[in-house]
Specification:
This protein is α/β, with parallel strands linked by helices. Helix 1 links the parallel strand 1 and strand 2. It is globular and about 55 Å long. It has 2 domains: about 140 residues, NAD(P)-binding Rossmann-like Domain (Rossmann fold, 3-Layer(aba) Sandwich); about 110 residues, no CATH class. The strands form 3 sheets. Strands 3-2-1-4-5-6-10 form a 7-stranded parallel sheet, sandwiched between helices. The protein has a 3-stranded parallel sheet with strand order 8-12-11, sandwiched between helices. A two-stranded parallel sheet has the order 7-9.
Length: about 325
């Protein structure tokens, strides 16, 4: 059997895919989880606990050759102590320190595309702080910064499917945040990467010593806009295109029958409105936060030449993969 790997976030969207890829290659897996896994395999051991329980981390890392650290959040819950600073930075400090304490030298870390010290969002700032702590740790680290990760179990794609089916608010449109007073000046471009490709990259890296000390941007080959994302999902899920509307209020000038049966509509909400809602506390009730609005205005794209050169393969295109799992959404 190959080496044993400790995975944080093992019950999450990416974590589940990484564990499946590790088992496919006959690795032993120790997984830190916050809920039970449906997967049963004699090579898999789970450890229930948090990033801040030293005894759980120590037991989980015993006999492991490498750590894959995946835990991150997109929504803060300050009343429960769940903040970007706490999870992204302090959580990484805890796991890095545990790896050093247990003699596990190889450390593969999940960051995010757009991470930088002067980022506009706290999400990216805390991701960068975590990277800096890892870089200074003396461990044999590799950092991945993926673009938007898509797959059948991802929260975003499930929400997209509900919008396409009109079973989630705002029901009559597939929204995105647009720049400008009326939201008409567009938003950042996306370069979605399939979760299976992200898992493949992480597992490739376990034994790939050329990647030690490197930061890799990982994204799919296709750059798309938010309206194009909505359109692709609507076509794949309900076999109807998501025709762009210049603004949400135009929905109310359309014939009622057209709203119900003809098409799906991708419509912008002004980004300033989203920020205002976040400032007065409404955004959380609607399922988003200020950082998500801010990040939506930035391009989430990457030059993946370095990744392709070092790994020898290219991530898969967006729409073919989406169509392959659309019935599961």
């Amino acid at each position: 059997m190959p080496h044993r790997v400790f995975v944080t976030g093992g019950s999450g969207f990416v974590g589940s895919a990484v564990i499946e890829e590790l088992l496919k290659r006959d690795y032993g897996v120790h997984a830190l989880v916050n809920r039970n896994l449906a997967l049963l395999d004699q090579r898999l051991r789970t450890f229930s606990g948090s990033l801040f329980e030293a005894d759980v981390l120590d037991r989980g890392m015993q006999g492991c050759h490498a750590v894959i650290h995946l835990v991150g959040i997109i929504q803060e819950r300050p009343s429960k102590g769940v903040t970007f600073e706490r999870i992204h930075y302090e959580g990484t400090v805890s796991v890095v320190d545990a790896a050093k304490r247990n003699g596990v030298k190889r450390f593969i870390h999940m960051s995010a595309l757009g991470t930088r010290p002067d980022a506009a969002s706290n999400y990216h700032k805390t991701k960068f702080a975590a990277e800096e702590y890892l870089r200074a740790s003396g461990l044999e680290w590799t950092i991945f910064r993926p673009s938007l990760i898509h797959g059948p179990d991802g929260e975003l794609m499930r929400l997209e499917a509900r919008w396409a089916r009109r079973t989630a608010p705002p029901f009559l449109m597939m929204p995105y945040f647009g720049a400008g007073m009326a939201g008409l000046r567009g938003a950042g471009r996306l370069q979605p990467v399939y979760v299976g490709d992200v898992a493949r990259a992480f597992v490739d890296t376990v034994e790939h010593r050329k990647t030690i000390g490197e930061v890799y941007l990982i994204a799919g080959p296709d750059q798309i806009t938010w309206p194009q994302l909505h359109d692709a999902v609507a076509r794949a899920v309900v076999n109807k295109p998501a025709r762009p509307r210049e603004h949400w209020w135009q929905l109310f000038t359309m014939p009622f029958g057209a709203i119900l049966i003809a098409r799906r509509y991708a419509a912008p909400i002004p980004a300033w409105v989203g920020k205002f809602y976040a400032a007065i506390g409404i955004a959380r009730l609607l399922g988003f936060n200020r950082d998500q609005v801010v990040m939506s205005q930035e391009d989430n794209t990457a030059d993946i030449t370095k990744f392709v050169d070092d790994f020898g393969w290219t991530p898969q295109a967006f729409e073919p993969e989406l169509k392959s799992y659309a019935t599961k959404l």
